[in-house]
Design brief:
Blueprint (H helix, E strand, L loop, with lengths): L5 H7 L2 E3 L9 E9 L5 E8 L11 H7 L3 E9 L3 E6 L12 H18 L4 E6 L9 E3 L11 H7 L9 H9 L7 E6 L5 H13 L3 E8 L1 H4 L7 E6 L4 E6 L2 H24 L3 E6 L4 H11 L3 E3 L1
Parallel strand pairs: 5-6, 5-8, 8-9, 9-12
Antiparallel strand pairs: 1-13, 2-4, 3-4, 6-7, 10-11
Helix pairs in contact: 5-6
């Protein structure tokens, strides 16, 4: 793990989750506005009654005065379950010069620290290739408090990038065994067909998760000409080899295909109101956490 700088953790202490649609049922520290939960709440305002609202929150005195149904809303303090999904497919380890997987585990660890520092329950899930008779994911023990953060790096160190990418299948298997949704953040290079990542993200959203995507991409992937001109490329997931020469024409074709891939994922997330951000491996982690994630709406300052 690269997270050994105490100054960096002091920066993380200033951060908290930014919540949009996620809801929780257990008492916690995150303020949930416009709630109609029955306990541990503070009155906030009134709103017009709409079908489906709980009649327990109708203000009958206001009904008598105004001759219309209004409902009391509250600001509640709740804990929000957070599910961090880490792609552990083989592509996360290639190209080696980018160290994408180490970078991604550091991101997950830093996000996990922020979650636990706010005393919210944390589920860290490693998404792996399905194997016969085994679950296609590995979960760290449920963590609830800042003091339990020390258990997270140990779990992440047991992981290694291997196998093909099956985002849709692995996410489906996980949510079928999970009772309470919350925030779902998928950390991946998303090097799959659109049907794979679209299926995974929409499954989470359909189950009530507030969905976020962190797109990890390496510096060598963005500018391969800096590291490679001619030679044999090996596909770590399909186990195929191909001789490649990066001529000007080939490089332009690559950049166009890469940009189309990046744009497609970003536009899909925006269309479905999912938070999206791109994290490149040559960007300092502190900058990503305190600047990029706050600007993207993932985090906020206390």
């Amino acid at each position: 793990m690269a997270l050994t700088d105490f100054a960096f953790f002091r920066q993380l202490d200033r951060l908290r989750l930014r919540i949009r649609t996620a809801r929780g049922h257990r008492p916690g520290e995150i303020l949930i506005p416009r709630s109609t939960q029955a306990w541990g709440v503070e009155f906030e305002a009134y709103k017009d009654y709409v079908p489906g609202d709980d009649f327990r929150y109708v203000d009958w005195n206001a009904v008598g005065r105004l001759d219309q149904l209004v409902v009391r809303t509250f600001t509640a303090e709740r804990e929000i379950p957070v599910h961090l999904f880490l792609d552990t497919s083989a592509s996360m380890g290639a190209p080696v010069v980018d160290q994408k997987f180490t970078f991604a585990t550091d991101l997950v660890s830093a996000l996990g620290y922020v979650v636990l520092n706010n005393n919210d329950p944390l589920h860290v899930v490693a998404l792996a290739a399905p194997k016969s008779g085994q679950l296609p994911f590995r979960s760290a023990p449920l963590l609830r408090h800042r003091s339990q953060f020390v258990r997270l790096p140990g779990f992440l160190q047991t992981l290694a990038p291997t196998g093909k990418t099956y985002l849709r299948e692995t996410v489906r298997a996980y949510i079928e065994q999970t009772r309470e949704p919350g925030i779902a953040t998928v950390v991946s290079d998303f090097l799959v067909e659109p049907t794979q990542y679209e299926g995974a993200l929409t499954l989470l959203q359909a189950r009530g998760y507030e969905v976020r995507a962190v797109h990890v991409i390496g510096a060598a992937e963005l500018a391969p000409e800096r590291f490679f001109r001619r030679g044999k490329l090996y596909d770590v997931e399909e186990h195929e080899e191909r001789w490649v020469s990066l001529s000007r024409t080939h490089l332009q074709q690559y950049q166009e295909a890469l940009q189309a891939h990046l744009d497609a994922l970003q536009q899909f997330c925006h269309r479905h109101q999912m938070l999206y951000t791109r994290a490149t491996t040559d960007t300092p982690l502190a900058q990503i956490m305190t600047e990029q994630f706050t600007q993207a709406g993932f985090l906020a300052f206390r």
